[in-house]
């Protein structure tokens, strides 16, 4: 059981409050679990625009997820080509759709709503090609579970801020951030940290002088004159 120190929980609360004041309460498009799973597989190693284009093409080409599942693999690969790595993602998506159908007799992930977080996560990550980040996105945004997805932005920003031990890798940071957050923060804080990472705390040149979190940030304390 992870139990971060109270001091760090308070810091996380301040980070969350400042980001809410700065960016507001983020909104997101709610998809059903299967659609979110497919969209998240498409988003691996690409940007949002390419993912959205590939997703739209897939939806336009096939009327249902059952049709995607049973399609000629080459037709799926062709539809999702804008997302990149289409030769991997196409078969991965079809295998995931078959896995869900074979396990539950229908193409739906709604059974996850009734499972505790850990069980749902174990079930999703048992699908080939579904890692912690993808599983956490589905569980958080489709089923309201207190998961905390960690992408490259969240991992970098939480490390610089000092919200986690510098040694934690991205997978370990999922569990750490879950423990650090209070109920209801997970979605907003995840999305606001991504926004900060894209707009201000970029990988190569963080703009600490313009960052709303600079007074709290360990990196800024050590690197800003
Ligand atoms: S102060 Fe600098 S390093 Fe810290 S979160 Fe902001 S931009 Fe990133």
Describe this structure in words.
The protein is mainly α. It contains 12 helices and no strands. The chain has 2 domains: 98 residues, Helix-hairpin-Helix base-excision DNA repair enzymes (C-terminal) (Endonuclease Iii, domain 2, Orthogonal Bundle); 111 residues, Orthogonal Bundle (Endonuclease III, domain 1), CATH 1.10.340.30. Helix content is 60%, strand content 0%. The longest helix has 19 residues. The site of iron/sulfur cluster has 14 residues, from α9 and α12.
Overview in brief:
With 225 residues, this protein is mainly α. The chain is 60% helix and 0% strand. It has two domains: 6-27 and 148-223, Endonuclease Iii, domain 2; 33-143, Hypothetical protein, domain 2 (Endonuclease III, domain 1, Orthogonal Bundle), CATH 1.10.340.
Task: Summarize the helices and strands and which ones pair or pack.
Blueprint: H1 6-23, H2 33-43, H3 48-61, H4 65-69, H5 73-79, H6 86-104, H7 117-125, H8 132-143, H9 152-161, H10 170-180, H11 186-199, H12 218-223
Helix pairs in contact: 1-11, 2-3, 2-6, 2-8, 5-6, 7-8, 9-11
The protein binds iron/sulfur cluster (SF4).
